[in-house]
Amino acid sequence: MKTMTSDELINLLDANEDLNIIDVREDFEVEQGMIPGAIHIPLGSIPEKAPELDKSKEYIMVCKGGVRSANAGEYLESQGFQVTNLEGGMMAYDGELEFK
Question: Does any domain span residue 64?
Answer without folding.
Answer: yes
